[in-house]
Structures are given as C-alpha cells and as structure tokens.
Write a structure and sequence with these properties.
alpha/beta; Nitrilase/N-carbamoyl-D-aminoacid amidohydrolase; seven-stranded mixed beta sheet; 30% helix
Length: 280
C-alpha cells in the first residue's frame, strides 16, 4: 500500500480537510463472509492511517459478474439491517471512520439494487444509494435508482455515484449543484473500458469544480484492473493507483479548493439552468 499526503480532519485538522482511503478490492465471487472479513481489515488499516472516509468498489461484498452470479444477487442481497451492514456499522463506530460500501441491497419496496450504503463514523446509516444508470445485463437483476442527492457527513456533503453513472455528466452536475465538493464512484471496470475510466473522473471534476474519485475492483474473469483515480477541482489527477493489484491509497484533500476553483472557473455559477432545465 502507498500513502499520499496533501494537507487534514482527525486530531485537530481543519473541517475542510478530509483524509480519504480508496480501496482497490479483490472480491471472492459469491463469498460474502470472506469479503466482509477482508473489508473489515481494510477499515482497520485505514483507521490506523487516520482516514476519515473509506470507499470500497461496486458490489464488493458479492463480487461483480452478472454472467456468473445472475439471479443469485437476489439471494445474496441484504438490507441495512442485515449482518453485513451491521458488521461495518460496528467497525465504523469502533474505528471512528465513515464508510461507503458497494453491495447488492434489498429494497424496502421489493427488488434488489446495485447499491451503496453510506455509514457515518458513529455507526449510523447516513443513507443508501441505488445505481441510476444500469449497465447492460445489470437490468436483468437490479432495479434502477431515481435519486441523486448528497449525504451529510461530518466533513460536509458527499456525493455518491456507481460506475456507469459517471458517464452521465448530468449525475455529477446534479450532486455538485446541491453542494457536494467530493463525489466518490464505486466501480467495476474491465480493462477493455479503461479508455473511459481515464476520462470520466478528470472531466467530471473539472466541469463541476469538485473532487471526483473512481474506486475500482481487481481481478476475476472480467479483468477488473484497479487503478483508482482521484481528480481535483481543476481536473488534475492526484491519484492513479497501481494496475491489477489489490491496494489502498490514503491521502488528504482540502475541500476549500473546490470553492477557490469555482471562483476562477465558475461553471456552476454560469450554468444556464433556464436553458438546460436542471432542477437541483
């Protein structure tokens, strides 16, 4: 694992400064217990490095492969009262860290979402997100979400998207218009699509003058390649993780940079909402 440091929140650091832990996670396909154990180890490691927020990839608790898992996503899905979320809630509280966890999520109204659970450092569930833009065969197994709204954490508003969502500028723009200065995107990208992976995060960061991260899985038949990305509000990459290996990047960002960049390049101020019809 390697660590990058830019600037701070725990231990007296300023409220605008947040330490992130981005996990390139290698899931064991359909082995929920093994993935939970490994995920909790990463939570402990991130806490030891002083992280305020740890983010895992898309569907990391089951692994990502619709061809292999298929309908079993419904069997493996859990709601927020299930053992997986309870284990990570306890870990968040014990290790004083916020968590974004990608998993198959049972919906209250029935069905299953390709989802993320957002847990604050007190162990409370701050919210859940259901992937809005489903990719290819995901439509056979998951219900699409229809809400893009940030989550309130102790450092401010956090935006969450999942994988293919990042290819739709409207999704990130909607979050930025609601005040999110940091958007994280749990993902499961295959090496064949790396050209899109390399473009999404700098583009979304630049046009919304905010920090945007892509957090990718590793391994499996789909050849997930890791290579986590984090772009700053100028659209500059400040993290580009190793290829094809499980890893975790830990670094500090200052969310005030988003305000400074938006003054210099006021995309959000000058957006013609009357023309484009954004309703955030």
């Amino acid at each position: 694992m390697f660590e990058m440091r830019n600037s701070g929140f725990k231990g007296g650091r300023g409220l605008a400064t947040v330490k992130l832990a981005l996990v390139q996670f290698e899931s064991a396909l359909m082995d929920v217990a093994a993935n939970v154990r490994r995920g909790l180890e990463f939570v402990e490691q991130a806490s030891r490095q002083g992280a305020d927020l740890i983010v895992f990839p898309e569907l990391c608790i089951t692994g990502y492969n619709t061809d292999v898992i298929g309908d079993r996503y419904h069997e493996l899905a859990e709601d927020t009262g299930g053992p997986t979320v309870q284990a990570f809630r306890e870990a968040a509280r014990a290790h004083n860290i916020n968590i974004v966890l990608g998993m198959a999520l049972k919906l209250d109204e029935g069905g299953t979402a390709n989802g993320a659970v957002i847990i604050d450092r007190t162990g409370a569930v701050a919210g859940t997100y259901s992937k809005v833009h489903l990719w290819e065969d995901e439509r056979k197994y998951f219900e699409p979400g229809d809400v893009c709204s940030p989550y309130e954490l102790d450092f401010g508003k956090l935006g969450v998207l999942i994988c293919y969502d990042a290819g739709f500028p409207e999704a990130a723009r909607t979050l930025a218009l609601q005040g999110a200065k940091l958007i994280v995107t749990p993902s499961a990208f295959s090496i064949e699509d790396k050209h899109r992976w390399d473009i999404y995060y700098p583009a979304r960061a630049l046009e919304n003058t905010c920090f945007v991260a892509g957090i990718n899985g590793v391994g499996g038949d789909l050849r997930l390649f890791g290579n986590n990305k984090l772009a700053n509000p100028k659209g500059e990459l400040i993290v580009s993780g190793h290829l094809n290996e499980e890893d975790m990047q830990v670094l500090e960002i200052n969310l005030d940079e988003a305000d400074e960049c938006s003054k210099l390049t006021p995309y959000l101020r000058d957006l013609r909402m009357d023309t484009y019809g954004y309703q955030a």
